[in-house]
Amino acid sequence: MSRKIWKAVIGIVLAAAIIVAAFVAFTFFNPRFDRIQLIGTWFANPTLRQDWQIVGQTRCPEAPMLWPSTGFVGVGWGDGAPPMYRHTGYDIFSPDGADNITPIFAAYDGYLTRENDWLSTVIIRHPEFNELPEITGGNQIWTYYTHMASADGQEVYISPEFPRGTFEKFVEAGTLLGYQGTWSGAPDRPVGLHLHFSVVKTLESGGYANETILVNTYDPAPFLGVEVGADGIIRCRRS
Q1: Residue ranges making up the domain that contains 136
Q2: Residues contacting residue 234 through CB under 8 Å, at least 6 positions apart
Q3: What is the reported pTM?
């Protein structure tokens, strides 16, 4: 094998090693990963970890939005291992141990839509969100709520007043939207009991952006008035 080829091979191996090392460092020495590891501890006995949770329908100090559901934020905005995955919102894990118990509330006044093909999801348009202009630029935003169904998809926990095909129905902050469930989108891979909540940007057309892409969402922290503690737990910001 020629020296040029050997150099190319060595370069590829070194580049791969650097990528692997960066992945390991980001994953295993990152407080975001530490927080995700605590999900099992939370589910083992939530009553022992009540200081990890925020109560739904309450408001953290100086927060524009209400907290949308009671629980522990086990996965935060941006969590994951880039470039492969970055989480686009907050996963708020219920303390109640069973589906269809923990209520989910509208975080802010707006206009609710549930598309015809949405089993467990609703989205709310907030056209007059005049708070946090330094973040939103004064633009319309949306809040997104999902996992409101059973693991097999047979039971839906969204409030009956929001059937499929609901468009632009006005709801006030604190309106009951449904209950936390374990539907993931496929019956063979249920998720832990939680609400996935995102704050979504608006397209030039006026519609909502694709919520599964990080750059299409805002960090929910300033909207909900929370911050990450030294222990990695997301709690209400101190006033």
Answers
A1: 31-236
A2: 35, 73, 76, 90, 221, 226, 227, 228
A3: 0.86
Count structural domains, the chain: 1
CATH number of the CATH domain containing 205: 2.70.70.10
pLDDT in tens, the chain (239 residues): 565 555 444 545 444 433 333 333 333 334 455 688 899 999 999 999 999 999 999 999 999 999 999 999 999 999 986 555 789 999 999 999 999 999 999 999 999 999 999 999 999 999 989 999 999 999 999 999 999 999 999 999 999 999 999 999 999 999 999 999 999 999 888 899 999 999 999 999 999 999 999 999 999 999 999 999 988 999 999 86
Residue 87 domain-assigned?
yes
Cis peptide before 220 (omega within 30 of 0): no
Give domain status of residue 19, yes or no. no
Tell me whether residue 197 is in a domain: yes
